[in-house]
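Lab notebook, bench 4. The sequencing result for the construct came back, and we need a structural model before the next group meeting so we can plan mutations. Quick request posted to the team channel:

Model the 3D structure of this chain.
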Amino acid sequence: MKNTIAKLVLLTFICSATTHKAFAQLTITGQLRTRTELKDGQGTLFSNGAKPASFTSQRTRLNLGYKMDRLEFGLSLQDVRVWGQDVSTINRTTAENNNGLKLQEAWADILLSDPAFKNKSLRLKIGRQILSYDDQRLLGALDWLQQGRSHDVALLKYQSNSWMFHLGASENQNKENVSGTLYNSTPPGNYTANTNGGAMYKSLQFLYIGKKMVKGNASFLFLADQFNKYTTDNVGTKTFVDGTWGRMTTGFYFNNSFDKLNVTASAYYQFGDNQTGQKLSAGLLSLYTNYDFSKAFSLGPGIDYTTGGNSGNTTHAFDPLYGTPHKFWGSMDYFYVASPFGKNGLMDYYLKAAYKTSSKLLLNGAIHQFNSAQKISSSDVAGSKTNFGAELDLSGLYQLNKAISFEAGYSHFFATALLASSTVKNIAHPNLNANWAYLMINITPDLLLHKN
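Done. Here's the predicted structure in token form:
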């Protein structure tokens, strides 16, 4: 990996020394993003007496892009770490779990069609890349997490005026096997492979059809992912065997502005077998309306619904795949964030507001009311209940200049005993008031920008 870094730095210097014509083809950008957090029940409720956590995490990226005739090339090298995880001198024994250096992106985008056709194009993008579509509910960059998310995939893209057709496919293996194609999908390290705390897919295919409108867009998605089958012994040890379980997710997305009213809606259905081999029939419905009272202030309500429960051997728990749940289900990340939540489904009623005080300062606020989609009977709570609690989210973003921004936020969760019960979060002697605060500095310089 050190040789890789050295070669990349050398390449940067070589490219920087080339002619002005080369500068028109080459982009080199960087990112340094630090985030200091105070966690007093963020992610899950604390037991009474538990101490809050505080730390600073850092993402560092070096991004290189190059364009030439019929070809675009992208490379992103990323390091993610917590301040203090390594000692202050050279550390030759860093634990593997602390090694945050990885290749975030490495792809080539080839124009297959004739460049003379200006309104139509057929391209092949292949390699490690970010998949981000629509509002990132099911396929997203997961940019809030310092490590983000990217996929090893081949993507065939056809563009014709306002229409776009994307066909993607991926096949994963742990290593170059001599024989067989068994795939150990156990999540590596402390990170889960998908949004809902599940295992990594063995293979994935999807079709995306999008239509741009004057003030919005609409789309259709069909995604299939397969998981390597396994057996489990009486102590829970997995043994991977031949064959896969296949899951399908399909549905529609719509976003458009009608004068000052903005409407976003989506509906998705999931079927097949989930990653544990259980029969699946689940759905997600979402509607959000937002009204621009002025150029500076907007406000609007929304509702999200994911199914839950079981019918015989069939589960109705919806899995939000490879999306960005931090954007939707509260900044406290209690639902669908790297944890297998969702067996009873979720109802999220919310109200969001945004106030842009100037070209540099944006303030955001949201109130969420979270309920179970199914009535829950718990030995910890009398009777059947649905109320999980409410959350308040506040944040502000200040853009100092094009390359430097500051962001701060505070969230509070007013939990109920049902959320802490053994049936849901399973927290003994819970503190039903949780807090979270953060301060983030994001620096994204253009390393080839030469201006006085």
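Residues 23-443 form a domain with the Porin fold (CATH 2.40.160.100).
Will bring this to the meeting.
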